[in-house]
Design brief:
By secondary structure, the protein is an alpha/beta fold. It folds into two domains: 143 residues, TPP-binding domain (Rossmann fold); 80 residues, 2-Layer Sandwich (SIR2/SIRT2 'Small Domain'), CATH 3.30.1600. 37% of the residues lie in helices and 18% in strands. The strands form two sheets. A six-stranded parallel β-sheet has the order 3-2-1-7-8-9, sandwiched between helices. The chain has a three-stranded antiparallel β-sheet with strand order 5-4-6. Helix 7 links the parallel strand 2 and strand 3. The chain is globular. The model has no long low-confidence stretch (mean pLDDT 97). The structure holds 2'-O-acetyl adenosine-5-diphosphoribose.
């Protein structure tokens, strides 16, 4: 029995046509992170921030899950033990591929949040600074996205899964943003085996026990097939 915790990043959705952040042509080469992904930026110019996330929501709705998302959904349903998916991605491609109980530690594009009363509701395709909270009527509505300087969601639950796992796998993440970038070291310190699946060695590559490099649509289905084959033999 092997309990697996998987952390995904923008690299798993790259071949679905959604841009990554730090690669050549990545989103942070075109947009100023401080202006569009911080609470201070939102306070200064909410319309700019809404326009940024509205564009990403539109891209996300027209994108399709790829074979890497599908392979992870298959692993979740066919593996004999728990497979927990924690994602830094705000897209819903894991869910649309069939994964369940995905932990969105950086929030989700399809959610709207009231900064006044914490009410959450499904985001319309286009959010605007004129939107009112359907629960309290307040105007402080925002995308349900965790910005820089804010605490990612479900951290206690994630650390519990991490330390109780047998295997931790990071897929398509550059290892630049904490706390997610620290999960491999955390897992290793708890005696959990660690594996990196990424296009190239990440900033934290040295922390992993094993790594495989290549596009997610090639290396993730291959790794999942191996795990399920090994399970059949056991
Ligand atoms: P990054 O853009 O930092 O890193 C993407 C990683 O995916 C890189 O290491 C690439 O080499 C790899 N990659 C690119 N294409 C790939 C492919 N086809 N197959 C496999 N790997 C591929 O994205 P994240 O690490 O997810 O946070 O970024 C973490 C956080 O930083 C994001 O959640 C976001 C961002 O700022 C917030 O906005 C709060």
């Amino acid at each position: 029995m092997t309990r697996i915790v998987i952390l995904t990043g923008a690299g798993i959705s790259a071949e679905s046509g959604l841009g990554t952040f730090r690669d050549q042509d990545g989103l942070w080469t075109k947009y100023d992170l401080d202006e569009v992904a911080t609470p201070e930026g939102f306070a200064r110019n909410p319309d700019l921030v809404h326009a940024f996330y509205n564009a990403r929501r539109t891209n996300c709705r027209s994108a399709q899950p790829n074979t890497a998302h599908e392979a992870l959904a298959k692993l979740q349903s066919a593996h004999s033990d728990d497979v927990t998916i924690v994602t830094q991605n705000v897209d819903d491609l894991h869910e649309r591929a069939g994964s369940t109980d995905v932990i969105h530690m950086h929030g989700n594009l399809n959610g709207a949040l009231c900064a006044g009363c914490d009410h959450r509701w499904p985001a319309p395709l286009e959010m605007s600074s004129a939107d009112l909270c359907p629960a309290c009527g307040n105007g402080s509505t925002r995308p349900d996205i965790v910005w820089f300087g804010e605490m990612p969601y479900a951290m206690d639950e994630i650390y519990q899964h991490l330390t109780e796992a047998d295997l931790f796998v990071a897929i398509g993440t550059s290892g630049n943003v904490y706390p997610a970038a620290g999960f491999a070291a955390e897992a290793r310190a708890a005696g959990v085996e660690t594996l990196e699946l990424n296009l190239e060695p990440s900033a934290t590559a040295g922390v992993f026990d094993k790594s495989r490099h290549g596009p997610a649509t090639a290396i993730v289905p291959q790794w999942v097939a191996e795990v399920l084959r090994a399970q059949k033999k056991a």
